[in-house]
Amino acid sequence: MPLPLPTESELAILRVLWDRGPSSVRQVQQALDSPVGYTGILKLLQLMAAKGLVRRDESERAHLYKAAEPRARTEARLVRRLTDRAFGGSTASLVMRALSDKRASPEELRRIRELLDRPDGKGK
Fold it and tell me: What does the alpha-carbon distance between residue 31 and residue 23 come to, in Å, rounded to a whole number?
């Protein structure tokens, strides 16, 4: 059964785990710099573990949490969902909207051109 898509709060926690690697509740809370307290972050991580979004290592006194899947896989699932729901499955419409709403940096444009120039159309 596929993993559920993360909520905004869950995605913020996943970003911390992807960037920092396995982390304790306290480390996640400090990295988020959020008004949500320790128990709030703990509850979110427990819910995320129950959903399968994170894995918990209980071998140490302070349990460590890590993302259950790589960032790229989660991002791909989120983009597919957005493309299907908001753009009727049209990748071109998604890209055109994204590029018309926010100016891409020269580096981002270079990377987009590289991707478009690849024969298979896939990134590195």
Answer: 10
Binning pLDDT at 50, 70 and 90, where does residue 124 land?
low
Structure tokens at 2: 């596929």
Q: Hey, what amino acid is at 16? A: V
DSSP string computed for 104-118: PPHHHHHHHHHHHHS
| Rounded Cα distance, 71 and 21, in Å | 11
Residue 78: in which H helix or E strand, if any? helix 71-87
Q: Range of 60's domain?
A: 8-67
Examine the fold and report which residue of 31, 47, 67 is the final residue of a domain before the chain moves on. 67
Q: What is the pLDDT of residues 78-92, one digit of tens each?
A: 999 999 999 999 999
Largest CA distance in the chain: 50
**In total, how many domains does the chain have?**
2
